[in-house]
Design a protein that fits this description.
The complex is a heterodimer of chains A (102) and B (196). Chain A has 4 helices and 3 strands; from the N terminus they run αβααββα. Chain A is α+β, with helices and mostly antiparallel strands. In chain A, strands 1-3-2 form a 3-stranded antiparallel sheet. In chain A, helix 1 crosses helix 3. The mean pLDDT of chain A is 91. With 196 residues, chain B is mainly alpha-helical. Chain B is built from 9 helices and 3 strands, in the order H-H-E-E-H-H-E-H-H-H-H-H. Chain B is rod-shaped, with a radius of gyration of 27 Å. About 9% of the residues of chain B have low confidence. Classes of the chains: A alpha+beta (102), B mainly alpha (196).
Chain lengths: 102, 196
């Protein structure tokens, strides 16, 4: 399984509960979970395009009064990539803690 | 705890001073602020209309409005009958029409769309929809025009830049791929010529 980049990992993690979310909803959640750090719509949608291309995220398009809405949902392969990235970050954290301890 | 939006603060302020009036106001929808006048839409009966149009009540609401909603000095009421008929002014249309100037900020993004490939254009269209939703939300929160314009401008710029950099990265990747293909073809040709 390829390992996602940090931004891809963050977005995958926000879909980790299996719920389908609209792009704007993900952006708001990102801000909430990252202590006020925001993500631009350009970064969000280009990153999701890569995640979709990798087969990690499913996409559904809809329309409302203001225009197009795109919904994203984590797929099985995405869940595997997310788990792998979590393990990788945990290993890094343990390594960092060991270094700090020594 | 999240800070309540400007309109919520107005409703709470009125409710603290006159509970019944506050309750009626709770079901009102702020539509637009134009030239210091906030248009609010209420679906209710004649009693609601009378209550909100009462001189003393109006003064109280205007007073609280000026305290909590920058840019609004007084309110204008639009009432729709619950038994039928449309709003005297459609809130959606009204907000669309009056948001023209703020929407103009998105013109840059609309123009940028024509310089993008199909996938970039798709992303721009999605971003425009989201920015319009942001715009409506900011207006409902009672944000000032300048604030809204600056936020939209900033979000427009930060939408364009990643699309440009993504496009460049993909162009470089395509060139690298073409270069790899060309080298492979050249190698095959060389081998074929040698075998001859």
């Amino acid at each position: 399984v390829n390992r996602p980049s940090l931004k891809e990992f963050e977005l995958l993690a926000l879909l980790g509960d299996g719920r389908e979310r609209a792009g704007r909803e993900v952006a708001k959640l990102y801000e909430k979970e990252n202590g006020g750090r925001t993500i631009s719509y350009g970064t969000l949608y280009t990153t999701f395009r890569r995640l979709h291309k990798a087969g990690w995220v499913a996409v559904r398009d809809d329309q409302d009064r203001d225009g197009r809405v795109r919904y994203f949902r984590l797929l099985g392969a995405g869940m595997m990539a997310l788990d792998e990235a979590r393990r990788h970050h945990a290993r890094l954290a343990v390594f960092g803690l060991r270094r700090a301890g020594s | 705890m999240r800070t309540p939006s400007g309109w919520q603060r107005v409703v709470e302020g009125v409710m603290a001073r006159r509970a019944l009036l506050g309750c009626v106001l709770q079901y009102a929808t702020p539509v637009v602020i134009r030239e210091g006048v906030l248009t609010i839409a209420v679906e209710g009966n004649h009693f609601h209309e009378q209550l909100l149009n009462d001189r003393t009540n109006r003064d109280l609401i205007n007073q609280v409005l000026a305290e909590h909603l920058p840019g609004a000095r007084r309110f204008d009421l639009r009432v729709a009958s619950p038994t039928g008929g449309d709003w005297p002014i459609n809130p959606a249309d009204l907000s669309m029409g009056n948001l023209g100037k703020q929407r103009g900020t998105l013109r840059l993004l609309r123009a940028f769309r024509w310089f993008c490939g199909p996938s970039g254009r798709e992303i721009v269209e999605l971003a425009i929809g989201d920015l319009l939703r942001d715009l409506t939300e900011m207006q409902h929160e009672g944000r000032g025009v300048l604030f809204i314009r600056l936020v939209l401008f900033w979000r427009t710029i930060t939408t364009i830049l990643p699309i440009v950099s993504d496009g460049l990265a993909r162009a470089v990747a395509s060139i690298a791929l073409l270069d790899g293909l060309a080298r492979a073809v050249a190698k095959i040709v060389r081998v074929a010529l040698r075998e001859r």
